[in-house]
Write a structure and sequence with these properties.
- The chain has 235 residues and is an alpha/beta fold.
- It is 43% helix and 20% strand.
- The chain is built from nine helices and ten strands.
- It has helices at 14-25, 39-49, 65-74, 90-98, 111-130, 136-142, 169-180, 188-195, 199-211; strands spanning 5-10, 30-36, 53-56, 59-60, 63-64, 80-85, 103-106, 186-187, 215-221, 227-233.
- The strands form three sheets. A five-stranded parallel sheet has the order 2-1-3-6-7, with helices on both faces. A three-stranded antiparallel sheet has the order 8-10-9.
- Strand 4 and strand 5 form a beta hairpin.
- The longest helix is centred in the middle third of the chain and has 20 residues, at 111-130.
- The two termini are 18 Å apart.
Amino acid sequence: MTNPIRVVVAEDDPQIAEIQQRFLERIDGFELVGLAHSLDTARDLVDVMQPELLLLDIQFPNGTGLDLLREMRTQNNATDVILITAAREVDTLREALRGGVFDYILKPLVFERLRDALQEYARHLERLRSMESLAQSDVDSLLPRSKVPQADTATPDTTDQRLPKGVDALTLEKVRAVFAATDASQNAEEVGATIGASRTTARRYLEYLVSTRELEASVNYGSVGRPERRYQRTQ
């Protein structure tokens, strides 16, 4: 079973912090390992607990979350950051993006928005962990700007117009047909053998179908402890 993603919440308002904590408890796959009401406490928790993710407010009595974000990046801290803030200034968003935030959520916080952000973050981590090397299509699937829909200037019957680079409709339908024929989970090598493609190519299409929630992925460990990523239709 995959370990939960460890999260620290940094929010100076105790009531809002408690709301975030309760929301987190309702989302599978995440574990709150620290709650900070000040930047100093947040800094210490990130340093000691080394969480995968920090949910960070911007306004604090003794500084801003952007100050902490810059400090973390200067120190090459590996913790990812989602900002949860009332700051609506475009310049603040630009600075946050320069600091490499994974997401930027405006208050008042809505459960569904946080849930979607965390689930997307979990998929993002799984995609990174499953990759052995990068193709351009892999990069396109990971970078947030690659997920922005493009203007629909093609004719309506152009099948491939909404597919990312490296994913063609014909091969995608072959992969879909594999899972339509069985409820059993399969790995990339098995799917590749069925459709006549390499494991790397099959994995690209499988991860795309995970991103569209047509498939779900799990990590199993074989007899020698090597992780194996398996896919099956979403229940």
